[in-house]
Amino acid sequence: MRSRETSSASIIRRSVIGLAVLSLVAAACGGDDDDSGTPAVTDAPTATDAPDTTDAPDTTDAPDTTDAPDTTDAPGEMTGMIVQPGVCGLGNGEAATGTPIKLGGAATNIPGVDFTWIPKMAKIYFDCVNENGGIYGHPIEYSYEDGAPDPAVWSAIATKLVETDKVLAIVGNTSLLECDVNGQYYADHGYHPIIAGVAPGCFLSDQWSAVNMGPYYSNLGGAQAALRAGATGKLVVASPDQPGMDFNNTSVQDIAIQEGLDFEGILETVPIADPAGFAQRLVQAAGEGGGVVLNFTGPTVLPLLQAISEQGLVDSVIWASSTPPNDPSVSAALKDCCGTDWDGKFLINAEFNVLDSGLPDNNKMIELHDAAGADFPISAFSQFGYVIGKWTTEALLRMGEGADYTVETVNQAIFDLKDAESDMICKPWYYTNGSSANVSNNTDRTVTPQDGNMVQVEDCFEIEAIAKDDAKGINGNPLEEIRSNEG
Amino acid sequence: MTHANPTDNRLPSILTAATPRRVITFVAFVLIALLLLPIVLSAFWMKIMFEMAAYSLVTLGLGLLVGRTGIYSLCQVPMMAAGAWIALRVHYLVDLPFPLLLLISGLLTGLLGIVIGLPAMRLSGLYLALVTLMAAGAITLLLTVVKFPNGGDGFWGFDKLNSSGQNILPRPSSATSDIAFYRYTVVVAAIGFLVAAIHITGKPGRAWASIRQSEVTAVSAGVNTTLYKLWAFALSAAVTGVAGGLIVAGTGVTTNQFPVEQSITLLAVVLLGGVYNLWGAVLAAFFLRVFPQILDKKLGLPVEVLTMLFGVGVISTLAMQPKGVVEDLTNLGRFVGSKFARSERAEHEGVAT
Question: Is the Cβ–Cβ distance between B200 and B68 less than 8 Å?
C-alpha cells in the first residue's frame, strides 16, 4: 500500500514539475497571437481621417417624401436629412431584397434594469426601413444580445458580435458596464458604436457616441429643475447600486456645492426591496424643503413613488428624476395609484421630447411600436432606440447608392454623422465634434405627470456647465468646451 | 442505468489513483486545452473557455470541501471576490510579478478561509451551510460598501471620481492576449488540480476521508479533526482566491457580480458535476460557464431555463447518482470501451479460426 502511494505521489510530483515547465513554455510561446489577426489601431477611422461632410451625398438625392407610404401622420417639414421626419429610411414602400447589411447591438437586462427596450425599438425601426427600400435596396439585418453587468459577459458579447456574427456596426448598445470594458476592443477592430450611454465612460471619448446624455448629465438636469422649483438646504441623489453610479451621482454633488447646498449620494439595490422605508430615508436625508433626484427606471421608481404618496411625503421635499420615468405608463400608473398627488410634483429631466408631442417622429415611433405588438412600453428608452435606428439609417444612406459596405466604410459613415435631426431632441446631433469628451445631446426639457399624462413644464434648457474647482471640491464637467466647439 | 451503492465510499478519481494511464489522460486533457482548443474554437468561445478554466478552480475548491470532508459551504463565491479584491489591492500597493500576486492572493484568501472556518468547527450539515451563507452575506455586504479598489488612496483604494465601473488587473507581460492568458489560466488551473490531488493522496486526504465517514471515529483514530477541517477550508479558499486573481486579470470584475445566491447555484453545479472525482469540478465549471452560452447562443433558450435544469439535475443526481454526472460519463466510457474491446477480441478470434 505504502509503495503504491509513494509511486502515485511520485508520478503526481513529476507531473507538477512537468506542468511548471509547460507553464513556462506556454507563457513564453503564448505571445499575443490573437492580436495578430486584428486590424491595427491605426486602421480605425480617426477624427483626422474623417472626410469632409461635403462628401456626403447631396440631400437633393433624397426621395421625395411624397413617395413615402401614407401614414396616418403626415411627415413633418423637410430637413437636410435624407431620412425625413416620421418616415422609415427612404420611405418608398418597396421591400428591400438586396444583400443584407448586418448590424448588432446589446443591452443590460437584469431585474430592475432592462435596457433591451432600446435595441428592441431600433429593430422595429430597421424592420420598417427594410419595408421601405432599405439602404438603397439592401435590408438591414439587426440582432441584439443581452447580458448581466459582468465584465466577462460584455467582453464575450463584443467578441461574438464582431468576430462570430461579423456585424458591420455596433448599434443600440446600452449597458451599465460596456463602455468601461470594450472601448479598446472596438477601437482595435475599427468600430464606432452608436449607443445609448449609461456608464460614465460612454461620454468620455469619441470611440462611442450616445444619442442621449446618460445619468450623469440627466441627474444634473433633474437637480437643476429641483433647484428652480425651490429646493433648499440639501440635494440628495439616489441611484441603483451598479458600477459607475458613484461617479454619476457626483454631477449633483457639483451643483450642490456650487449653489452652497449640502449633498448626499445614495446607492440602492434594485428592485427596491422596501420602498416605504427607502422613501422615509430619502426624505430624512434631504430634510424639509430639500431636493431629491431619483435615478431609476420607470418600473423601479413606481413602487417608490406610490410609497411616498401613501406616506404623505410628496410635499416634504422637491422630487426630481433623471430621464427613464419619462414614460406615459408611469404617469398613467401614478394616476391610478395616487390620484392627483403627483401632478406637477415629479420633475423629470427629459433628454427627449414628451411622448405625446404629436410631432412626426414621435407619432411614427408610437405607430411602429403598436403595429409591432412590442412587449415593452413606450418610453424615453423607445425614443432612444428610434433615433438610434433613424440616425444609423441616415449614416448608411449618406454613403450613397452602390456604396461598398465594410466595417471600415460603415463605421466611417457613422463617425462622420453630423446635423442628425429629429423632433424628439432639442438641437441637431453629431457623432463627435473633437472635444475631449463626447456629449452631443446636452440640452433638455423637464416634464411632469399631469392627470395621467406626461406634460412639458420646461422647454429646452442647457445642462449646467460646471467648471472644476479643486478648492471647493467641484469635479466639474466638460460642457463648456463641448459647446464652444459646437460653435 | 447504474445505481450507486450508497455504502460505496471509495473515492474514484483519475488523480487520486495516479496510474500511468490516468496521468496520461490528464496530461492529454491539458494539452488539448492548451493547444487544440485555441485552434478549433472562435475568439468568442475561447473567452468562454477562459472563464471555464478559471471557474474550475472555484468548483474544485468547493468540491474538495463537500466531497472530501463532507463540509457544505455556501461561501465560495465571496471567496472568489475576496481573491480578486486582494489581488487588486496588493497590485496597487506593490508591483509584483503576476505569479507571485496569484500566490499571495491564494494565501491571503486561504487565511480568510480559516477565519470563516473557525466558528464553523462545531457545526456540520445544514447549520454549517447556514453559517457559511451568513458569512457570504457579510462579505458581499462589505464589498458592496467598500467596493473593489480602483486606484484610489487609502486602505480600501476606491475612488468614486474614477468613472470606470470595471476593475481590472494588468495581465502578465508574457500573456497579454486573450489566447495567451487562457493558456496561462489552464496551466495555473492544472497546477491547482495537482496540488489538490497531492493533498488527497497524502495524509490530509486520508484524514479528510475519515472525518467525512465519521468524525467520532476519526478522533478516536487520533486524527486532529480541527486541524484538518481548517486545512480543507484553507486549501479550498486558496485555490478559489487564485481563481479570483485570474478572473480580475482576465476580464475584470465589478462589485455586483458576486451575489450571495450565486453560491447556491455553485453548490448545485458542483453536486451535479460530481464531488467525489476531481473531473467533476471540470464538469461543474462547464455547467456554470459554458452550458449557459450553449443554451443561449446555440439553442436560443433563455438562460433562466438553467435554474430549472440545475434544480432537476441536482434532484436526479442526489436520488439516482450521488457521484454526479462525471460518474455517468465514466460508466459510459467504460461501457463503450468494453464494447470496443469485445468487438476487437471477436475480430481477432475470427481471424484466428
Answer: yes
